[in-house]
Design brief:
With about 290 residues, this protein is α/β, with parallel strands linked by helices. Helix content is about 45%, strand content about 15%. Strand 1 and strand 2 form a beta hairpin. Helix 2 packs across helix 8.
Length: about 290
């Protein structure tokens, strides 16, 4: 019985992963046409590639040119859509005009996604596309994702999740398809660096973006700058901590981040944790 398939690079794809890809293709074929909420990340790039292979011109990618999206991420989304040869539309969602989003309660993502999927639903109708789809995978179900409420509210489809694809599956398949995003680190919106209850402002988003862009230039692929008002708290993987706390380099980093608007710069000794600002919510639930 066949258990795996050799990729062009000589690596193997597990049979279970192949079966999930087959389910994904069937799901997309049944949709007939779709408008994809496209960020240019690992998941949405993979979904766009497979959807375009299955549906051709009947799939359209749409990206929100928002203040919460770092400029390099927007440029990457444009580049990826072009490389896949798919029609790509940029829209403005103006989350900063929504007081519920700006207030930054734990359901901030719901308000953001509600605005986004409302616009995408209208756009899908204008282009005579039957469905709006997005790139959540099965692993996302275990995380705190208030944006799922907006997905349900607007009837948005999540083909990767429906097919049972995990992040690891998607990376393996992306690599086999030659997608440059296969090993791309996650890049959630800039507002996710601001603790709940602290207002989201353009100034905070700008200094977070500048700080992370600078740290990327030092060779840190995975890094978060958590914005605690006057304090920038840097999270990076353990292997990067020696550089961050080296006396000479730390002084340079501190001076640079202060030039972007912070008064103090700290390094989190626990290192990078995806969704670390959700930790207080979990502690409340456990208590």
């Amino acid at each position: 019985m066949e258990t795996e398939k050799q990729t062009a690079s000589g690596e193997s794809i597990p049979r279970e992963t192949k079966d999930k890809l087959a389910r994904l293709r069937d799901i997309l074929q049944d949709l007939d046409s779709a408008l994809l909420a496209f960020s240019g990340g690992v998941d949405s790039s993979f979904l766009l590639k497979v959807a375009h292979d299955m549906l051709g011109e009947k799939v359209v990618a749409v990206t929100s040119d928002s203040e919460t999206m770092a400029r390099p991420e927007l440029q990457l989304a444009q580049s990826m859509a072009k490389s896949i040869d798919c029609k790509h539309i940029l829209i403005k969602t103006n989350e900063m005009c929504d007081p519920d989003f700006v207030a930054n309660s734990p359901d901030r993502c719901f308000h953001c996604k509600k605005t986004l999927f409302g616009k995408l639903t209208e756009l899908a109708r204008e282009h005579n596309l039957k469905y709006v789809i997005e790139g959540s995978n099965i692993d996302d179900v275990s995380d705190y994702r208030p944006g799922f409420r907006a997905i349900e509210q607007y009837g948005v489809r999540s083909p990767l999740k429906e097919a049972g694809l995990t992040k690891d599956d998607i990376r393996v398949l992306s690599k086999s398809m030659g997608l440059s995003t296969w090993d791309k680190p996650a890049a959630p919106c800039l507002a996710s660096r601001i603790p709940y209850g602290s207002e989201v402002t353009p100034e905070k988003l700008h200094r977070i973006e500048k700080s992370e862009e600078y740290l990327h230039s030092l060779g840190l692929r995975v890094v978060r700058v958590r914005d605690h008002g006057a304090v920038a708290r840097i999270e990076a993987p353990p292997e990067n901590l020696p550089m961050l706390i080296d006396p000479a380099k730390s002084a340079e980093i501190s001076d640079s981040l202060k030039s972007f608007g912070y008064q103090y710069v700290a390094v989190d000794l626990k290192g990078f944790r995806s969704g670390s600002l959700n930790e207080p919510l979990k502690d409340e639930q456990d208590g």
